[in-house]
Amino acid sequence: MKLKILIGKFNKFLIRLVSKLVYFFRLKFFRIKILIQLKSKKDIVISIIRDFFPPPYGGGNQFMLYLLKNLRDEGYRVKINSFDKDINIFIADYCWFKKKYQYKIIEHKRKFNSKLIHRIDGLLSKYREDGIDLDKDAQYINRYADFSVIQSEFTKNQFKIFGYQFKRSVIIHNSVDKNIFNNINNEEKDEKLIVSASWSNNKQKGMKDYLWLDKNLREDLNYNFIGNLNFIPRKIKLKPPMIQRDLASEFKKADLFIFCAENESCPNVLLEALACGLPVICKNSGGSPEVINDLGLLYENIEEVPEKINYIFDNLNFYKKLSKQNIIKEAYKEYIKLIKSL
């Protein structure tokens, strides 16, 4: 009996070790791959300062990969976490990089008169235990910024309330890769399908509301959740986190997207669902109302959602027509305007 227990523990240890090794090499390969740029045609050299991770990962990581790809497609030479003397402009993603990079940026600016565009995240102290220190790190490097890119009016006001100020702030909503997230080839089906998604299961991502839906929605509703929940669902079908193309495919199978997160700056996953032609029901919180416009409904209390589901399903053709008229601005074009102005 003791031998069986020991063998079981060893097998679990071995599985964890192999998983860690696989992820380690996957991360290394991914970071090497995104360093490669075969050609560029512009004189301006940009360095994006961020610790990137292979998808699926959080929305900020996805957006910065989108920005990296599109700036390169436009002909800019874009390096990652580089402080070479030929760098003209840094684009730093809030505080999501090694602390020593702050001082390297400051020193580079002093020596070579380089410029800094600082992308501002949401107020981390609102939902992370280490958020206060992270916000302070971001505030420190922002003193050297030439532009501060804030993701929504909500975030701008949120920081203002808590006494944070950013240099030369401009608002640029996030964008998604339209080659992946679009309403082309959306699947026709007889049964209605609801979908939600979240890479993180932090309670601020709406876990309490998703739990209520799992307990209270009608049994005949089909509901998929892609990503991570902090509870074991009973009615909702939980699917693992997915890379972007697979996530887009799942969205295109659905008829409605429900988003319950609170105080999100400009949620990428919400933009991805809208780009796939889905009407949405989302919590009246954070930057979400700025994003959805007329393409869905807001709720204050989760108990309102079943009625709103019925309303959207009864008017699905109307929302589908609206979604075809929806134009999501390309954020990278707004960044290029800032780059050219420096």
Largest sheet: 6 strands, parallel
Number of helices: 12
Q: How would the global form be characterised?
A: globular
Helix/strand/pairing category: alpha/beta
Distance between termini?
A: 71 Å
What is the mean pLDDT?
A: 93
- Uncertain runs are none
Enumerate the strands of the largest sheet in spatial order, edge to edge or round the barrel: 2-1-3-4-5-6
Radius of gyration: 22 Å
Q: How would you spell out the order of helices and strands?
A: HEHEEHEHEHEEHEEHEHEHEHHH
Strand content: 15-25%
What's the total count of β strands? Answer: 12
Share in helix: 40-55%
Structural write-up:
The protein has 342 residues and is an alpha/beta fold. The protein has helices at residues 2-33, 59-73, 100-112, 131-142, 153-161, 207-216, 244-253, 268-275, 288-292, 305-314, 316-325, 331-341, and strands at residues 45-49, 77-80, 89-93, 115-120, 147-150, 169-171, 193-198, 222-227, 237-239, 256-259, 280-283, 296-299. The protein has a six-stranded parallel beta sheet with strand order 2-1-3-4-5-6, with helices on both faces. Strands 9-8-7-10-11-12 form a six-stranded parallel beta sheet, sandwiched between helices. The relative contact order is 0.11.
Topology:
Layout: H1 2-33, E1 45-49, H2 59-73, E2 77-80, E3 89-93, H3 100-112, E4 115-120, H4 131-142, E5 147-150, H5 153-161, E6 169-171, E7 193-198, H6 207-216, E8 222-227, E9 237-239, H7 244-253, E10 256-259, H8 268-275, E11 280-283, H9 288-292, E12 296-299, H10 305-314, H11 316-325, H12 331-341
Parallel strand pairs: 1-2, 1-3, 3-4, 4-5, 5-6, 7-8, 7-10, 8-9, 10-11, 11-12
